[in-house]
Structures are given as C-alpha cells and as structure tokens.
Amino acid sequence: MLRCLNQPLNPCLNGFAMGTLALLLAACQPPASMRDPHPDATPNALIHESSPYLRQHAYNPVDWMPWSDAAWEKARAEDKLVIVSIGYSACHWCHVMEHETFEDSAAAAFMNEHFVNIKVDREERPDVDGVYMTAVQLMTQRGGWPLNVVCLPDGRPVYGGTYFPRERWLQALGSILKTREAKPERVLEYAEQLTAGVQQAELVDVPPLEGAKAWGTPDAFGPADALLLDDGIDRWQQLWDARWGGNDRAPKFPLPTNLDFLLHYGTVRGDQAALDHALNTLLHMERGGIHDHIGGGFARYSVDEKWHVPHFEKMLYDNAQLASTFARAWQALPEATASDRAALKRAALGIVDFVQGEWSHEAGGFYSALDADSEGIEGKYYVWTAEELRAVLTEAEFRILAEVYAVDGKSAWSEYESDATANVLMKWSPDAEIARALGLDEDELNRQLEEIHAKLSRVRSERVVPGLDDKILTAWTAMMASGLTATGSAFDRPQDIDRARKALDFILNTQRGDDGRLRHVYHASTGPRIDGMLDDYGSTIAACLDFYQATFETRYALAAAELAEQAVADFYDASLGTFWFQRTGGEALFARKQENDDSVTPSANAQMARNLFQLSALFNRSDWRIMSDRMLAGALDRVDYWPSATHWAGLLLWRTAPHREVVITGDAESIAAARRSLQAAYTPQLLFAGGSNENLPLLEHRLLGGLNIFVCEDGACQLPVASVEEALKLLP
Predict the structure, then answer these.
(1) What residues have CB less than 8 Å from 716, skipping those under 6 apart?
(2) Would you call 67 helix, strand, or coil by DSSP?
(3) Contacts of 195 (CB under 8 A, 6+ apart)
(4) Which of 75, 116, 171, 378 stands the most exposed, by the fewest C-beta atoms within 10 Å?
C-alpha cells in the first residue's frame, strides 16, 4: 500500500523518465527577472470563485484561471503548456510561494506570456489533486502542497514538484520551455510514460468471481489470511516510537486510521502491546503542542517527533476522525488509569466543542479549515510569550501554567518568526506528575486549568483570527457526523447525537440531488456543486451506518443502502472489481485513478468495501458481500506496509475473527435501554440492528413480543434471549 514519501513509490517509470528530462532541464539557463513586491490590484478570473483558497489568489498578477473547459481550450488553441498549481486555504507553504512568486509582477509576466495558469483548490477537486499528486510522487518520490505541475495542453504532466523558491521556479519553467522547443519528442515520450505510471498506481488486482474461494461465505478467508495481520503488526512494531508514540519519524501525523486499527486489533487479538502503543500515542498527542489546549482541536501535524511544534492549520477531517478515535479509546481501555481516561475524554469533547463553536454552519454542514497563519506569521494566533501570560493571569495562576506547560523551558519555540521567545504550550509530563509537583490533586489542577484556559481564550479571541475556509465538503461533514455519533454514544451526550443527525440530514436533503447523486461541495454563495467523489459516498454511507447503529433510526440505514446502489452504478468497474474515484461518465482527466491506500483519511475503496460488508448483513445482499470480499482479497495481494492499509486490515479482522450481528426487538423504551447497555463497551466485532417493526431484512420474523435479543453470525441466529445479561453470555 502507500509507502512513506521517502521510499520508492512505483517501478512503472524506468531510468529514462526523470533522468533524461532532468539533464535537459539542467542544461538551460533561468530567465532574467526582477523582484517586484507589489502585486497588481486588478483581479484575475478567480475573483468569481467561492473557494477561499482560489479567492486568496484573485489579486495575484498571474492570470490565474479556475479549472475549467475554458482554460484547457485556451491552452489547446494557443498550443501553450499549462501550469496547474494546487493547494488549500490553510496551507502555510502555499502562502509562502504565493508571496514570494505569484505576487511578483516579473514572475507573473513570464508565466502569463508563456503558459496558461490554472489554480486548483485540492479540497474542491480531490480527483484532480489525486492524479497530479501521483504524477509528482512518481517523478520526485515526494509529495505535498503547494503542488505545482507543468502539463501539455491535453493535461498530461511533464514536470512537477511542491514548493519552489522563486528563482528555482522560474529556472524550471524556462528550462521546460526550451526543452519542449528543442526536443519535443522527448517531452511527449516522457508524458506518455508518466501517464501510464499514474494509471497503474494503486490499482488492485481483484481475483476472479469464479475460483477456489467461495466469496461471500464464512470460508472466504482463513487462518493464512489472519496471519497476515499478525505478521503486519510484527513488522510495523519495528517502526513505532516507544517514547512519544506514533511512528518513529518526523514529521508526525495523527493518522486516526492507524490508531483505530490498533484499538481494534489489540482488543480482538488480546495484544496488549498494540493497545499500549495506541494509548501512548493518543496521550502524547493530547499533551502535545499539536493539541490546542486553549481552544480545543488538533493541528494537522507536528514537525518534530515529540508532537510539540505543529504546522498550525486545523483541518476538519483530522478533528472529525480524532473525535471518534479518542471516544473509542476511552471505551476500549477501561483498565487505563482514571487520569489517562479523563485525558482521552477531554480531548474528544474538546474537539466537539471547538467544531461546534467555530465550524458549525446553520444549515447542518461543517466548515473545512482554519489557516496556519495570521498577520502573515505562522502560529501567531496560538503561541504565547511569558510576558503575555503574566499580563493576563495572577501570579499564582502563572506559576501553575508555567509548571504545567514548561513556559520558557521545553515549550519555547526557537524558530518562531519574532524576536520574542514564544511558547507552543505542551505538557511534558502526565497530569498526575504535574499535580504532585504542584502539591495539588488532579481534580483541583484541572479545575484551576479550566479557569486559566478560559481567561486565555478570552484574550486570544481579541487577536487576529486565522482565516476560515468556509466551504462545506460532503465527505468531511460525514466524518464529523460519525465523530459526533461516537462521542454521543460513548459519553451519553444526546446533544451530539442531535447534531450528527442534523449533519446527515444536510447531506441527504441538500447535498443529494433529485437524481440520487451526492454533490461534493457546498458554499453559502453557490449552494451544492461539483459531482460527488467516491470518498463522499464512502464517508456518508459509513456515517449513516454509524448513526443507525447508535439510534436504530431506520431511514439512515435505508439511505446508506440507496447511496451504495448509486455508488455501484456510478463508480464500480465490474471488469476490475473495484471502484474508481471519479464516477463513470463524469469529467475525464488525463488518467483515471483509484484510491486504495490509507493516508490521513481512509482509502475510499477500503471504506466502500467495509460499507458493503455491513450493508450485506443488514439487507441480506450476498452480492454486496461478494464484492467486498473480492476487493479485500485484491488489497491483500498488495499489502507490504500495514500502516497504509489499516482500513483494509480492520475489514480482514471482521472476516477472520468472530463477527456477530446483534438484533434487538421489542418496544422502543426496552430497545433503547438494551442498546445503550450493549454498546457501553467497545464492540468492534458487532453490528447492531433493531426496531419495533420489520423494516429491514435482518429484522424480518424477529418480532416475537416483548424484548428479544438475537445474537447472529452471517444471518444465522441463536435463540433469542430477553435480557442484556443473557445476551452478553452469547457474545465472544
């Protein structure tokens, strides 16, 4: 599956590809230019866009165009190369390149004369970002944003990279132009090879429908498949950071899919090392500077191995998933100390409070991101000098805060863009140790910290707030609905369940058109637009299934099934046995792409395979179970690095360890009480269904009067029992 970015990504491109073109480029001289720090005040075509990222570039002197047929028609008509520059509103290095290069009139003049220039918001167009990111990773073995690609007029890439300093960027552009003029056949040959590589990247070789394995049956996967999980964990464990958690490298990303799998695997296999590593990682994240202790929520990643200094952008997809992960960990680790479990709960609910307070749209969706920068300085909104803290707090409060967060000690940020010593607040010890050092019990310490944090929050709110990306993305809103469902269930918070329902209703009523298809993005100024991608369907179906199991509100299970039918019709390739990321019949890019590797979000194909597995049980759909099994079998053939395949690995656990369906019928009050009791613990191998009428196939013929709890496996149920205590005896 997806490897680390410093590892080879794909053998499809041979030695010719980058080597020959790089030599040609290196032989050329950069164009002469002068630095002009004042951008032109006349807006370009991006002024008409709703995307905050695109509008950030609307006053660049570069003649940016949005991704559109018109831009590509212009390139073909003028036979010009195309610059496709991709980023997102919260991206720090996107801002740096904009200020250094795209606001420079001389650089802009060169780009305008020789290229058609297209700006893309990667969050609006993950399909475009996906194919060009793969191309750049094949070229350079690296990836990230800003993503800058030079393409032929037909969209095929010939050169690319991430952040470029101004002079290097201009040199590269000049070199590409001269190379195309001198050796156009070499450029075309390279484009063809690179396109072939992108088309092959991440493809899964799904086994045929007819074969030795009885797809969709309990025997489809056996002990040998289960051993893949153990072997994968053994290899992965060598990469763990035993001190700080996560993988033993920097930068460090939260990667909730990894942590969810460790909780799942550790619980099912009884692997204490997996559970301990998940807990250690989550606790260090909760204490770290990546965690906004004042306002709640987490930054996208830390630049160091200690989770201390983040790139300060906050993304909805991270926080949505982490709300679920922290809540699941709280349930999965009842034997952890009270202090550690309190930290897990504090992190989960801090995310919920932050998202509700700053990212909640009245229509039901959630905004996308907060910028890393404010006043042109990364992290300025979040960091504190000792003088600033003393001005806000009493001396006693400052002494507590300085001890808790090691102010001007370990928490000092040496690379802050200011002469003042700033602190990225981080706890360097567990709460119990800090409380002992202060002579307080933990409850009193946390009570005082809440008051101190509230003071700091009021002062911080008077600072210049980082820019808000106020577009609403279907997939990310669905992830937040799942997060709220998790916190609502784990911590018995009906308000979270209500907010999750509102989010799902927004997607189903506003983002789903009359044709049954989802739209990808919503903005208050434009409404729903852009065809939904596979991740929109995968995340929404998963959120509907999560919510159904937490409430037994049947319409969400039915909506999940309807969306699955739509996804199969629009995205499934019967000849390959997997889903494309873009729908068939949608806009054609230079290559079609699948998404089979986990990254900071689950792979869309893995998500769909998991959804189909669960839906097959609820709706007695053997065809969906078969599709899921074949996708999983194909993914297993590619697995050589479990951290990028953990969503698939969780599905493999469902298929190789005892998995049960729990059906609860009776009157509404009895059903709700039984459901809450059975779901109080962490139950990753159970699928719940219930109700007082036969509204789903799994409930048919199971309304017998009074409370009845059925424990089933692959649709075969044991005799019903009438109490939670009896049901627990039937569960593994």
Answers:
(1) none
(2) coil
(3) 156, 157, 590, 591
(4) 171
Alpha-carbon distance 296 to 355, whole Å?
Answer: 8
* Residue located via tokens 């801002």: 95
Q: Which residues of 34-68 are buried (b: 16+ CB within 10 A; e: fewer)?
A: eeeeebbeeebbbeebbbbbbbbbbebbbbbbbbe
The answer for residues whose C-beta is within 8 angstroms of residue 113's C-beta and 6 or more apart is: none
Q: Write the DSSP string, 54-94.
A: HHHTTTSSS-EEESSHHHHHHHHHHT-EEEEEEE-TT-HHH
Tokens representing 175 are 């070199």
| C-beta of residue 482 within 8 angstroms of C-beta of residue 543 | yes
Q: How many residues does the chain have?
A: 732
Whether 541 contacts 553, CB under 8 Å: no
**pLDDT tens, position by position, 151-198:** 999 999 999 999 999 999 999 999 999 999 999 999 999 999 999 999
Which DSSP symbol is given to 366? B
Q: Is 29 exposed, middle or buried (0-12, 13-18, 19+ CB in 10 A)?
A: exposed
Is the omega angle on the peptide bond into residue 146 within 30 degrees of 0, that is, cis?
yes
CA distance 137 to 12: 12
Rounded (10°) angle between helices 105-114 and 166-182? 20
Q: Give dist(CA 629, CA 646) in Å, integer.
A: 16
DSSP 509: I
Contact 499, 547 (CB under 8 A): no
Alpha carbon dihedral 157, 161, 163, 166, in 10-degree steps, equals: -70
Return the closest-CA partner of residue 126 out of 586, 645, 500.
586
Tokens of 609: 């395979």
Q: Which residue has the tokens 């310490």?
A: 445
Query: What type of residue sits at position 43?
Result: P
Q: Which one, of 530, 541, 586, lies nearest residue 565 by Cα?
A: 541
- Cis amide leading into 251 (omega within 30): yes
User: Would you tell me how many other CB atoms lie within 10 Å of the CB of residue 575?
Assistant: 7
Report the distance separating Cα 405 and Cα 287, nearest Å.
Answer: 9
Distance CA 23, CA 201 (A): 26
Q: What local confidence, expressed as pLDDT, does residue 502 receive?
A: 98
DSSP letter string, 623-663: HHHHHHHHHHHHHHTT-S-GGGSHHHHHHHHHHHS--EEEE
Stretches in the chain below the pLDDT threshold 50: 1-40
In DSSP terms, 150 is beta-bridged to 83, 159
The pLDDT of residue 418:
66
pLDDT at position 677 is: 97
Could you identify the residue written with the tokens 């928490």? 411
Q: What DSSP character marks residue 124?
A: T
Cα–Cα distances (Å) from 275 to 260, 269, 279, 644, 711, in that order, read 10, 10, 6, 18, 27
Residue 357 DSSP SS3 = helix
Interatomic CA distance for residues 546 and 485, integer angstroms: 7
| Alpha helix ranges (H) inside 141-247 | 166-182, 184-200, 223-237
Q: Are 86 and 146 in contact (CB under 8 A)?
A: yes
Give phi and psi for 48, each to the nearest 5: -95, 0
Question: Computed over its alpha carbons, how large is the radius of gyration of the chain?
Answer: 26
Query: Is-contact 442 339, C-beta < 8 A?
Result: yes
Q: What is the pLDDT of residue 289?
A: 98
Q: Please say whether the beta carbons of 580 and 592 come within 8 A.
A: yes
Q: What sign does the dihedral 513-514-515-516 (CA atoms) show?
A: positive
pTM of the model: 0.93
- Closest residue by Cα to residue 321 from 473, 543, 499: 543
